[in-house]
Amino acid sequence: MFYDALKERLLEGGFPSGSRLSVEALKAEYGVSKQPIMDALRRLAADGLVEIIPQVGCRVPVYERQDVEDFFAVFGGMEGAVAGVAAHRCTAPQLEDLIAANAEIGLLRAEPDASARAHGYRVLNRRFHSLVHEMAHSPVVAEISRRMWDMSDLLINTSGIQQPLASAVSDRHDDHERIIAALRERDAEAARREMEAHVVGTVTVIRTEAGAAGQ
Q1: How many CA atoms lie within 13 Å of 92's alpha carbon, on the beta-carbon side?
Q2: Residues 98 and 54 both lie in one domain
Q3: Range of 35's domain?
Q4: pLDDT-derived band at 99, boundaries 50, 70, 90
Q5: pLDDT tens digit string along 1-27?
Q6: Distances from the Cα of 36 to the Cα of 6, 30, 41, 43, angstroms
Q7: Can you spell out the DSSP letters for the chain?
Q8: How many percent of the chain have pLDDT more than 70?
Q9: In which band, very low, low, confident or very high, does the pLDDT at 150 lie, cut at 50, 70 and 90?
Q10: In what order do the strands lie in the sheet with 57-59?
Q11: Residue that finishes a domain, picked among 10, 26, 59
């Protein structure tokens, strides 16, 4: 499905912030007609992942630093609340799945290719957090969280940083370990606190990597 392919490319940072998405260029690249492209762009605009500007066209949104920080502050609070609920509702098999997912993230620390490390972390991190959503047993909240995770990936991967979060895999893995420990103990307050700190801490990682890159 063209929508899924284009969305994945956006979330992987395939289009820089502010770049124009040309319908004609996409037609030529993907070998599809105009209609599925327009349908996909409209859906992506509804998701907040692209902007359709009348008389101009479609582009990847440009967000100011304060917008990014505000987003992660709100997102962190929400994910913290989900983790707090999950602490009361998670099952032993779900915890085992979560531990296994984070173990895979741990293996990425030995990956020498920063690009592969960054991609692997994005995919496995989404898996980890989707498992926490399942623990909460709230489909409505899970759907809202999914949309916010899409926005999170877009903001991270259009930040202008090469291989974002690649240098932070070890620290992020350790964050997850603290979240798992709180869930295992069914400590809702600790789960909320650790999850919120983990999500909000994304801003610090972006700042650090931008500073290292001289941005």
Answers
A1: 0
A2: no
A3: 2-59
A4: very high
A5: 789 999 999 999 999 999 999 999 999
A6: 11, 11, 9, 11
A7: -HHHHHHHHHHTT-S-TT-EE-HHHHHHHHT--HHHHHHHHHHHHHTTSSEEETTTEEE-----HHHHHHHHHHHHHHHHHHHHHHHHH--HHHHHHHHHHHHHHHHGGG---HHHHHHHHHHHHHHHHHHHHHHHT-HHHHHHHHHHHHHHHHHHHTSS-SSTTGGGHHHHHHHHHHHHHHHHTT-HHHHHHHHHHHHHHHHHHHHHHHHHTT-
A8: 97
A9: very high
A10: 20-21, 57-59, 51-53
A11: 59
- Residues 105, 99: Cα–Cα separation, whole Å: 10
Cβ count within 10 A of residue 116: 13
The verdict on 41 and 100 lying in the same domain is no
Residue 98: which CATH number? 1.20.120.530
Q: Which tokens hold the place of 103? A: 């173990």
pLDDT of residue 115: 92
Classify residue 81 by burial, with Cβ atoms within 10 Å: 0-12, 13-18, 19+: middle
Q: Does the CA dihedral 11-16-17-19 come out positive or negative?
A: negative
Residue whose tokens read 């989900």: 82
Please provide the average confidence, as pLDDT, over all residues in the chain. 93
- My answer on whether 53 and 80 are in the same domain is no
Tokens of 183: 């869930």
Tally the domains of the chain: 2
Q: Are 183 and 95 in contact (CB under 8 A)?
A: yes
pLDDT score recorded for residue 38: 93
